[in-house]
Amino acid sequence: MGEPAHFHCQYKKFTRGKGQSAVQAAAYRLAARLRDERTDLSHDYTRKGGVTGTLTVTPSGMAVPTWAQNPTKLWNEVEAAEKSNPRALVMHEWEIALPHQLTASQRMDAAREMAQFIADRYGSLAMAAFHNPNRNGDQRNYHVHLMFTPRAIGSEGFSRSKFRHYSLRAAEAELEDKMTGAEEIVFMKAQWAAIGNRHLERAGFAATLDHRSYEEQGVDLEPQKHMGPDATSQERRGERTAKGDFNRAVKDRNRNRQAWRQAWEQARIDITGQHLPNPPPAAAQDFAKAAGSSKSDPPALPRAFVALMDSQIQERRGLLNIHIAERKKQWEMEQEKKRLQKRHWAQLYRRQSKEKKALESRFTTWRQRLLLKIDVTGRLMKRRETTIQGLERLQKMERAKLGREFRQAIHDPADRLLNRHASELVVIDARHMAQRQEWLSRETRNQALLQRLKQGNRGHDPSRGR
């Protein structure tokens, strides 16, 4: 059957309130050089590798201006349509993992179909950028960035109003008879799962893409955390992170779950030699629930194993409670440090404003004003400006130094605490696995001993010893 395709479909939005720009985001994803006319900045990402192709999709049957095919003009028009709104939403994006089983042309066809669906649904223009896996990362990570405009586009340009599919709340959605923003995201993920599975089946592979969670699928696996760009880059450089340690622990626990389930299916005879009943069909339930909650439920696991699992669960819960209490204490300390930082900032600004006013007063006496009037070369004026600029530069350096000290004082203890918590969880999981393996090996030895005893009893003749 082969390895199943990986499902990843994440929605993102770019706003000016977060300091983001549609021109800069498009330049990075397209690995191109685009100039932002609003900020007069040039964003050059031409040296970025891994971008294998791009495509632009317009709504079906809709005539669009010629500049819509030019990325520089397109995203500058998107920024211009928002005028001077400091919190404007300037771009939507779907980041989608493409099945690594498909060829490059098949992946492009699947992404084109998804981009066309987006363009037709919202009436906007969609632009896709295809990225290959990073050379230091997972070589199956073929993905596409589907960027689309926040306004519908027509022959005259963008519409006056934005579509609000991703921002509707429950009351507004019920009034307009539409889906909420969260429901819209789930709907789009399901749409990509259907499109991806259709292209997988056309290529002769099994349809394994599923947008539902493990719990909704009834799969007894624990989900991992999204790493993000910062943690991923640190892991690629060989630096351990709290998220990376957590995901590694989750992988070990999932591997243990599968190994124990497989071992339980293969060895279904206990020390008495009797066949045990089949395990319950529900795969996602807890071990304690699988043992039976009433006298009428048949036991699915030996009591010794259930007792071992219960003790390990209690130990893990105790460790997690300790971690939660430490995190709460750390959060209170961070709040106190932030309050202290605010007081220091207020004192610093008051002192710096007094210094600046004192310096300004030196240049505002009647004698200095008279000299400034008769100064032909402007040397006094230049000296005044140079002195004020030097003072502002020193004050800015002082504020930056104080900010670095406070950030280090706040973030370093929290990072060390997270790393210690992750390492403690990894150690306790490894010890739990060793206990389970010891229990299984003991059961295996008991079964082998029982088999030898049975064979010896069958081959013994009482009359031969007399």
Give the strand content.
5-15%
The number of helices is 12
Mean pLDDT: 82
Uncertain segments are 269-273, 282-299
Give the class from helix and strand content and strand pairing.
alpha+beta
Placed side by side, the strands forming the largest sheet appear as 1-5-7-6-4
Largest sheet: 5 strands, antiparallel
Portion of residues within helices: 55-70%
Q: Output the helix-strand order.
A: EHEEEHEHEEEEHHHHHHHHH
Task: Report the principal-axis shape.
Answer: flat
Give the N-terminus to C-terminus distance in angstroms: 63 Å
Q: Tell me the total number of β-strands.
A: 9
What is the alpha-carbon Rg in Å? 33 Å
Task: Name a few traits of the molecule.
466 residues, alpha+beta, five-stranded antiparallel β-sheet, two-stranded antiparallel sheet, flat
